[in-house]
Amino acid sequence: MNKLVLIRHGQSVWNKKNLFTGWVDVDLTEKGVDEAHAAAKSLKEAGFTFDIAFTSVLKRANRTLEIILQDMGLQNIEVQKSWKLNERHYGALQGFNKAETAEKYGEEQVKKWRRGYDVPIPPLSKDSDMCPSKDPLYCMIKDCDLPLSESLKDVVNRVVPYWNEEIIPQLKNNKKIIIAASGNSLRALIKYLDNMTEEEIIEFNMPTGIPLVYEMDENQKPIKKYFLASEEALKESVQTVLNQGKVAKS
Q: Looking at 45, 66, 87, 218, which residue is catalytic?
């Protein structure tokens, strides 16, 4: 039996401001750094070690991973970075406050945008400064492959092939793996691993900074999963994620 660890980056600057972030490359807050240290502590205490790590090209995921590996004394292991593990591209919503957007369009619509499976989001203008084709991070990628907005279905369609082509071979070689990414790229992978329905994935929220452990069988299929956190800490973190899309109380 092999174990796979998934972890969503710690709180980012735009998480704290409750903004749609997407591919905007923001850093962690002080709380986010603390969450990464706490994740490393829980992993170390549970006896985890890793041979290889996967992450996106976004600094909030990169920094979370760096902190975890450094605290665990694993900073020299191989790290593979790919834009295919990036957060979902939130298109024209990027930079907008989620609570204010909920007040304008309604909580139900914002929930569909944030959690729905194939709900389209207004695309980003190609003239926008946030357009991926203008970002040096993506200079080696064809413009036609770079999204201007994405549904969760679109994220599944880029994450799952990457999983099958890059990560599964490492699991087959019995490598101990950690994946540090964002909420929606991990939800996309979790939907695939757990064979969730579109309705089930809408209700699933990935907390920041709490490791999710999968125990895998010899065919690299999940047989068990659990978070490395107390029920109270997990509930509090998930509630924070849920509250982001609600109208602010006066």
A: 87
